[in-house]
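Propose amino acids for all 219 sites.
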């Protein structure tokens, strides 16, 4: 699994490189700003070696505002198959919404504090690289608070909202069951009810789990 890291703090960048390398991932480039990130990925793509995932800070030089997330949005436009995992010091709903505005396949948004939980962070990188979703629980909570102002999720019970929120974090049914201390069967029932209430009929062309999360995040 090939990773590009974009972080202007050399210390943190080297720490992330060591952490992921120890996990068995290959860090193929490390850069310190958004423009360098775009160039590094373009150079790798030009040699037929597009990375599996980019891990980038939201705020990078020169203005330390949104260079990182904007670079990731642009990378997603150029390479839809590229996974992007954004790190932020605190929840910035506007940036999270911008990143998640399109497909949530291969997208992650974590708070930097989560990096300290080495196993969970490495698993999030691997999940995003594989096309999954990894959202920080605090990001999900904030987006859920916003979604309650909409109408589309009003038919869900509190438990169904909780299950959908955990789905948005990228968790499997088994992981959700473990988190909520219920059976796998109970979670499967909640997920089926969510699909039904959101009007997501089974179809060979659509992935209902992804559509449910998209509905949740865009509501």
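Proposal:
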């Amino acid at each position: 699994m090939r990773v590009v890291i974009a972080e202007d703090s050399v210390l943190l960048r080297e720490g992330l490189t060591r952490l992921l390398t120890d996990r068995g991932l290959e860090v193929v480039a490390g850069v310190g700003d958004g423009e360098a990130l775009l160039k590094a990925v373009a150079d790798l793509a030009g040699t037929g070696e597009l990375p599996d995932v980019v891990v980038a800070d939201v705020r990078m030089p020169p203005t330390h505002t949104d260079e990182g997330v904007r670079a990731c949005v642009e990378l997603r436009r150029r390479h839809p198959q590229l996974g992007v995992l954004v790190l932020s010091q605190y929840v910035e709903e506007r940036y999270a919404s911008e990143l998640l505005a399109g497909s949530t396949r291969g997208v992650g948004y974590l708070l930097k504090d989560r990096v300290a939980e080495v196993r969970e962070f490495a698993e999030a990188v691997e999940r995003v690289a594989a096309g999954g979703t990894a959202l920080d629980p605090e990001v999900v909570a904030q987006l859920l608070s916003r979604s309650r102002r909409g109408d589309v999720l009003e038919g869900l019970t509190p438990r169904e909202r909780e299950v959908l929120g955990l789905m948005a974090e990228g968790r499997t049914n088994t992981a959700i069951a473990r988190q909520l201390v219920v059976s796998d069967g109970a979670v499967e029932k909640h997920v089926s009810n969510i699909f039904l209430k959101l009007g997501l009929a089974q179809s060979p062309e659509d992935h209902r789990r992804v559509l449910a999360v998209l509905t949740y995040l865009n509501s």
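The longest strand covers residues 26-31. The chain has a mean pLDDT of 85.
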